[in-house]
Amino acid sequence: MELLPILDIFSTLVFAIVGARVAADKGLDYGGIAFIAAVASVSGGTLRNLFLGLKPVWISDPWIVAAILSAVLLTLVFRRVTRIGKTLLVMDTLGLAVATISGAHLALQQDVAWHAAIILGAITAVTGGLLRDVLCQLEPVLLHRETIGTSSLMGAIVFVALRQSDLELNIAALIGALVVIITRILSIYFDLNLPKFKSGKKA
User: Fold this and answer.
1) Per-residue pLDDT tens for 20-47?
2) pTM of the model as a whole
3) Over the range 161-186, which residues count as b (16 or more CB within 10 Å of their CB) and which as e?
4) Is residue 200 part of a domain?
5) What total number of domains does the chain contain?
6) Residue 52 domain-assigned?
7) How far apart, in whole angstroms, are the C-alpha atoms of residue 110 and residue 57?
């Protein structure tokens, strides 16, 4: 089996689980949980494919749909609702890394420019989480902390650069994913964030 379908299925499952748990934590009903899980898991890849002129993966790949349904089922079976903790944070970080590489890899397969591949890798990774937070009426993590976008961009840059230098795909993917994970872990551990805009004091 090729690398890209495996990455898509894994990131879909992880993002769907995180999305479903966030929705459950907000007290949404079963339909809401399923909807948030779907949005969180496939919107990034769908937007990526639309930019590339391709059909969204979930239309043609039943395993993507199966991954979302599995995540929802797991959330409903294990009814105990817990606030987002270390386990979900780890899962979300893994999903971020995998989605970044998946997005950039597919873009390169379509012979787009290197800078477009980097941007599409980041879009694939961060769009679902952004929409998840907005729909659940949470302040989007992407926009104010943990440098999620920066972590994804760093990993995409490294992956694309390594592929441009003809490094073997799996090695480049592993290194790029590790860059995403390490960057996010460091930003959380040391409370690192991008500078925030501060308006000047009125006279």
Assistant:
1) 999 998 999 999 999 999 999 999 999 9
2) 0.89
3) ebbeeeeebeebbebbbebbbebbee
4) no
5) 1
6) yes
7) 15
